[in-house]
Write a structure and sequence with these properties.
- The structure is a single chain.
- By secondary structure, the chain is of the alpha/beta class.
- It folds into 4 domains: 117 residues, Beta-Lactamase, CATH 3.30.450.20; 85 residues; 158 residues, Histidine kinase-like ATPase, C-terminal domain (Heat Shock Protein 90, 2-Layer Sandwich), CATH 3.30.565.10; 118 residues, Response regulator (Rossmann fold).
- The protein has 16 helices and 17 strands.
- Helix 5 packs antiparallel against helix 6 and helix 13 packs parallel to helix 14.
Length: 541
């Protein structure tokens, strides 16, 4: 027979010496219901160390921890009824000990006994809690630090914005004051000389005033290009077609000490772009390149097809897709990296005072963005600079140029009448006088409703010349639409000061319509009127 006594002693020694707390509980009926309490039948010495309660043998749980008894009875009662062991972690609130527990049934259900093996994990729980609290504290500090950083960055951006505004307004004031001095001074001297009867000097002052006015118009044009509000007339064009004439213009402009090269990509895609403004932008880039090579060098104008994936497009602040690029590079002095982020700011220039307005690159930037493209600059000090204009590919065919000769005669039929709508009396007067000299009969209106009343009358009107930005609740585009409803064959010439460009570009410029930007030369007005009245294009009916 087995040595039962020896085995019992062996298990008792193990029971008493094991590190984990261990006990056997037996369920009892109580006033709370059947099997609603339990008594500790056995417990090892480690029980007290792990649970913090001594002498538990013979004690009922509802006597030991009355406030927690229901929870413990529910847990161990589940083991008794199901026979399935469980593992869980739970705090013994009475002693503040956190326990990791393994419980299983001993014998059949009828014995009503459950074994409990557990250990104290209070130190671990407290360490985990401290770690969580530390993490939460760190996250809170990081959030606070990020908020403070955002505030600092916002303040910095605001300061930079105000600096840019100050730079812009200061540059504008300086340049316009110079130009206005030339214009007003010319007018004053014309008046003085006319009063003196010295008409021979008038032409000199007239030329000076006109020159200053043209420079003021050019300055406004560049500012509006930067702000993306210039009036553009884009059309599908393969840029390679213009490289020959452009390179000759560049050579004449930069001088013989600069070598000009062109690299035209084969199979270049068409781009939707205003050709004249693109030529102006490229000429500006070439002039900048010339100024960066005081001792001579090489300017290269290069075209290419580019396909930008999502990542590259994001890096270039563009939409993914196909683009046509026109790059102007030089072998000049280059630009310091600290200045590269500011080169597109208006009135920012690295040139000495009096040698640049600081509007060339800002104009190029604004033109590219308004054309749904972008411009990028790459530079190394001592190596040179490359500026690339990105223009979206046009999926249709290239549009053929329509050449309107500058000396087109303005033949006027008897009784041909022009309606002029502009809220500025001086503009109405000048347009009316210029067209009257050509033999037209002119009608005038100061706002949209007044012009519309004339259009609704029986008066003959062959051409409508209207400002886009008009007072009275009707802009020039709305007047034109109403006019076409009344007079389907009416030709229309819009005149705009750039800022109203959205009114035009958001709609469709129909056949029989033209756009003329202010300020304009009388000769250009005459040419546009002649072209409209002699054009074979028929307005939509």
């Amino acid at each position: 027979m087995p040595n039962l006594t020896g085995n019992a002693e062996r298990y008792r020694t193990l029971f008493e010496s094991m590190d984990e707390g261990f006990c056997i509980i037996e369920f009892l009926d109580s006033p709370h219901g059947p099997l609603s309490d339990y008594i500790h039948v056995e417990a090892n010495a480690a029980y007290e160390r792990h649970a913090g309660i001594a002498n538990v043998v013979g004690q009922k749980v509802r006597e030991m921890v009355p406030d927690e008894a229901d929870g413990w009875v529910e847990l161990y009662g589940g083991v008794l009824h199901s026979g399935n062991p469980i593992r869980f972690q739970r705090e013994l609130v009475a002693t503040g000990h956190h326990l990791e527990v393994h419980s299983f049934r001993v014998g059949p259900f009828e014995d009503r006994q459950v074994a409990v093996l557990f250990k104290d994990i209070t130190d671990r729980v407290q360490a985990e809690r401290a770690q969580r609290e530390l993490q939460e504290t760190l996250e809170a500090r990081i959030t606070e630090a990020l908020a403070e950083r955002e505030e600092v960055e916002l303040a910095l951006r605001q300061a930079q914005k105000m600096e840019a505004v100050g730079q812009l307004t200061g540059g504008l004031a300086h340049d316009f004051n110079n130009l206005l001095a030339g214009i007003t001074g010319a007018f004053e001297m014309i008046g003085v000389r006319l009063a003196q009867g010295r008409v021979g000097d008038v032409e000199k002052y007239l030329a000076a005033g006109q020159g200053a006015a043209r420079r003021a118009a050019a300055l406004t044009h560049r500012l509006l290009a930067f702000s993306r509000r210039q009036t553009l007339t884009p059309k599908p064009v393969v840029v390679n077609r213009m490289l020959g004439d452009l390179s000759e213009l560049v050579r004449r402009t930069v001088g013989p000490q600069i070598n000009v090269e062109t690299v035209a990509a084969a199979g270049l895609w068409p781009a939707m772009v205003d050709v004249n403004q693109l030529e102006n932008a490229l000429l500006n880039l070439c002039i900048n390149a010339r100024d960066a090579m005081p001792d001579g060098g090489t300017i290269t104008i290069e075209t290419a097809n580019r396909w930008l994936d999502d990542r590259t497009a994001r890096d270039h602040n563009l939409t993914a897709g196909q683009y046509v690029t026109i790059c102007v590079s030089d072998t000049g002095t280059g630009i310091d990296k600290a200045m590269l982020d500011r080169v597109f700011d208006p009135f920012f220039t690295t040139k000495p005072i009096g040698q640049g307005t600081g509007l060339g690159l800002s104009m190029v930037y604004g033109f590219a963005r308004q054309s749904n493209g972008h411009v990028r600059i790459y530079s190394e000090v001592g190596q040179g600079t490359m500026v690339c204009i990105y223009l979206p590919r046009h999926r249709g065919e290239e549009e053929q140029d329509i050449i309107l000769p500058g000396d087109m005669p303005a033949t006027v039929d008897a009784g041909e009448t022009v309606l002029i709508i502009d809220d500025e009396p001086s503009v109405r007067m000048l347009v009316s006088d210029a067209l009257t000299d050509l033999g037209f009969r002119c009608l005038e209106a100061g706002d949209g409703p007044a012009g519309l009343r004339l259009l609704e009358s029986e008066a003959r009107i062959d051409l409508l010349v209207t400002d886009v930005g008009l007072p009275g609740g009707l802009n020039g585009r709305q007047v034109a639409e109403a006019a076409r409803g009344l007079r389907a064959d009416l030709r229309i010439l819009f005149i705009t000061g750039y800022a109203e460009n959205a009114v035009l570009n958001h709609g469709h410029i129909e056949p029989g319509m033209e756009v003329l930007t202010k300020p304009f030369a009388v000769e250009e007005l005459r040419r546009r009127v002649a072209a409209l009245l002699q054009s074979d294009d028929q307005p939509n009916r």
